[in-house]
Fold this protein.
Amino acid sequence: MTQPGAPTLPDGLVVIVKRECATCVMVAPLLSQFATTVYTQDDPTFPEGVVALHDADLAISWHYDIETVPTVIKVVDGVEADRTFGWVSSEWQRITGIADLGGDLPPFRPGCGSLSVDPERVDALRAAFAGHVLKSRRLELADLDDEMELMFERGFTDGLPVVPPTEERVLRMLQGTTRDARDVVAIVPPDLVEVTIEKIAINAVMAGCKPEYLPWVIAALEAVCTDAFNIHGVLATTMPVGPVIVCNGPGTRAIGMNSEGNALGQGNRANLTIGRAVQLIVRNVGGGRPGEVDRATHGNPGKLSFCFAEREHDSPFSSLAVSRDFAPTDNTVTVFAGEGPRCIVDQRVRTAPELATVFAACLRTLHNPKLILAFDAILIVGPEHARVLAEAGWDREKLLAELHSRLQLAGSELVFGAGGIADGIPMHLHDATLPKFRPDGILLVHAGGGAGLFSAMVGGWANGEMGSQPVTHRVVP
């Protein structure tokens, strides 16, 4: 494959070699028999007896995707027509047309890695020769500038240090997706600014992501920037909510996400940096900054990053993604406007009905035991609690049905002033029976470590058309 902007090679046979390659040294005496042009990557005096061009900046090697030396390229009318690499006598004889070329040499010798794919050089080469693909404004630093402090001073951080997004790092990040750097992914509220793959990559670098995380960041941002999720409203509310990102599919394990012990906490790079990248994009591209559009009264630490994977391999339930009409093999993200998690503890529970009663009692307290239907919730069932449900044969549908049946509440307990609590519902509903949650208002997820009969719940922001709806998007490479 030839990279865009490649210098034109002369017609004939072109050979790329380096002295620090035993196979190159072995075939060097053959080059005078056929080679029209020789490029040497390291020593400009190599090979002896041949006038070689020094590919000192590795421009030829990089643009022509030389992964192994020696490489022989046949060029016709300025276009590559054929190539071979390493030493395979039959291939060299075929491409040169010399039937007995290298007849005294072994029939095969592997080549060596090209300097243009050296891990210590490849990022700098990509920046030197592909930096033109980046369209973002460059910030020039003076010799005495501290790059970390500059990012703070310019307001690019979430309060923690960020990784400086150099060209090398951004171009490396873009290797994580097949999408073009100029593709517009979404319009980011509150400032309604177009965000490209490049801008997402820049913030993913700042967040500390690896390139393989980039498709997950893109999918989460696409989901967040929908009218259904309503990130503008999530920012502007005075409630302490932000995007909670639940990841599903085999890709979560491939990128090393945590779905087990401390899944909602610190320590896992993929979990934290994916969620952080989304938040940085909303801040740096969309303008969603605390004290400005972000009006949370208290906020919560999850507004830095709240992202985790569902523990699917031993779950008694179908996954959250499957419950939302995706296939088990799909990689997905589900975004939910939620607060921080709250622990649900019952160490003595041994039956599924007992556990459902505990879950319902705790869920009733969100966000006030008398407020109904306005808020959704995520119920994160821990593995030991899940074991109790599995032993009883309870699947997702059974547990949700039991929870909703236990959360049918008497209006007399919910009206204004009842139980000494001023808030509640209008008096004309005194004799009604009302549900705590709308029918699809509890999102059920399995995650956490195997020690302890614990689960967790995450309260949501206002639901419905005036609030925020959970949104699930497929992750596209």
About this structure: The chain has 15 helices and 20 strands. The CA atoms of residues 145 and 460 lie 43 Å apart. The chain has a mean pLDDT of 96. The radius of gyration is 30 Å.
